[in-house]
Amino acid sequence: MLARAISATPWGIEARPVQIEVDVHNGLPQVQIVGLADAAVRESRERVRAAIKNCGFDLEPKSIIINLAPADLRKEGNHLDLAIALAMLAAYEQLPQEALDGRLICGELGLDGAIRSVRGGLAIADLGARMKCREVLLPAANAGEAAALEALPVLGLRGLAEAVHHLTGEAELPPVPVPPFSLDPGSAVPDLSEVRGQETAKRALEVAAAGGHNLLFLGPPGSGKTMLARRLPGILPPLSLAESIAVTKVHSLVAEEPPAGLLRQRPFRSPHTGTSTAGMIGGGSNPRPGEASLAHNGVLFLDELPEFRRDTLEALRQPLEEGAVSVVRARARLAFPARFSLLAAMNPCPCGHLGDPRYCCRCPPPLIERYRGRVSGPLLDRIDLHIEVPAMSLAELRSSAGEGTQEVARRVATARSVQLDRFGANTLTPTNSAMGPEQLRRFCAVDAAGRGLLDTAFERLGLSARALDRVLKVARTIADLAGSDAVRASHLAEAIQYRSLDRRVVG
Question: What is the mean pLDDT of residues 155-183?
Answer without folding.
Answer: 89
